[in-house]
Amino acid sequence: MNNKIREKLKLLTTKPGVYIMKDIDGVVIYVGKAKNLKNRVSQYFRNSPKQSKVQAMVDNVDDFEYFIATSEMDALALESNLIKKYQPFYNILLKDGKQFPYIKIDLKMPYPRLEIVRKVKKDGAKYFGPYFAGLDAREIVKTINSAFKIRSCTLKITDTSMAKRECLNYSMGLCSAPCTKKISKEDYRKEIDRIINFLNGNDDEIEKILTQKMQNASKNENFEQAIILRERLKMIDKLKKRVVANLPKNVDKDVFAYHFNGLSGVICAMIVRAGKILGVINYPCLDAEFEEGQTLFNFLTQYYKNVLPASEIITSHTIPDQELLQDFLGKKINFIDNAHGINKRLLEMADENAEDYLEKHIEKERLKYNNTLGAVKSLKEKLNLKNMPMRMECYDISNISGTNKVCSMVVFKNGEASKKDYRSEYVSLREVCSEHY
């Protein structure tokens, strides 16, 4: 600990807020929040044994800053924004683009339809999912459309609107033509209720409908249609195989197991909806927190930006500040950290997945570090640079016989390609550079 840090620790306040740790090059390497800034930040620099992941971060700290917040909720929001801004190496970083698909049914519409969306809104509609790990939301929607006669078009249908004629789907027996009022609103709603019943975990009715349709198509020698329906039945069978024994069909759970070896860690997320395991996914993470429960807390605040939380969350470690997390998610949640029975089985399954992932991918993560941030540090030393080149831009100009000039720019951040910043313009190099500097 240098004198600069020692003097700043004396001036720390006991109020809640956010702190950011910087390395010798001024690069932000960690962002955290605290109920009591003085106690929390001082904890990092005490001469006491620390976990390897925490000590590795502290060894690289040359300076820190802090921001006072009026409440813990404000501190949590500020922390989230700063992590997104600085992308610190020792924070959990989930890609914003990782958004799983949901099936949406807006019951406020006179004649609802099925939509596949990747953002859940508080609009009163019903959302089913998320679907991943071998379950394709598009295939599920196709399976539903094969069994129930609901519309798949985007027409704005009202109680008074009337289309000129029915579309081809009506002639093929795939739609009940609400656009021309061939079906009443009440009867159409019954079809929607049957679909909701299926998405809630009751597969028997749709399986009988598709089986009957397949047999009829085969009898009529419509073998192409029979093959399509057979594939739809395979989707139903895939869903049925994901049923958790002794778990009611109306149960939704999210299970999170954190497994770490002192330096690297993995969080396994298991999604259970309507008594079925919809998917299991592993997230490698590096988070310089003292407690495992706080690491899970930090993970959940990012994870649930793109995923609708279940009413019951099972975790391998106790989550601190559970009321704060509930307020942040905007939903009443039952947290379970001392699992028994079926919950314990689900947690053990998630932990086994996390442990297996960590064993197989730890070498891959080490190579990634050496090829990204490690390579940037090496480049700084070899070129005797004052600061680490955290952002690098490379330009190239091509032309045909001195005409049709094209300038391209590629960008690397923290040693990784940032393709969203790539540019290609039919202008001179000077014009491209002046746009960025």
Describe this structure in words.
- With 437 residues, the protein is of the alpha+beta class.
- It folds into four domains: 3-86, GIY-YIG endonuclease (3-Layer(aba) Sandwich); 102-240, no CATH class; 253-371, Nucleotidyltransferase, domain 5 (2-Layer Sandwich), CATH 3.30.420; 391-436, no CATH class.
- 39% of the residues lie in helices and 21% in strands.
- It contains 14 helices and 15 strands.
- A five-stranded mixed beta sheet has the order 9-8-7-10-11.
- A hairpin with a 5-residue loop joins strand 1 and strand 2 (28-34).
- Helix 5 crosses helix 9 and helix 12 runs parallel beside helix 13.
- The chain starts with a helix and ends with a helix.
List the helices and strands and how they pair.
Elements: H1 3-10, E1 17-22, E2 28-34, H2 37-44, H3 52-58, E3 63-68, H4 72-86, E4 102-105, E5 114-117, E6 126-128, H5 137-147, H6 168-171, H7 185-199, H8 204-219, H9 223-240, E7 253-260, E8 265-273, E9 276-285, H10 292-303, E10 312-315, H11 322-329, E11 334-336, H12 341-371, H13 373-382, E12 391-400, E13 403-413, E14 416-417, E15 423-425, H14 429-436
Parallel strand pairs: 7-10, 10-11
Antiparallel strand pairs: 1-2, 1-3, 4-5, 4-6, 7-8, 8-9, 12-13, 13-14, 13-15
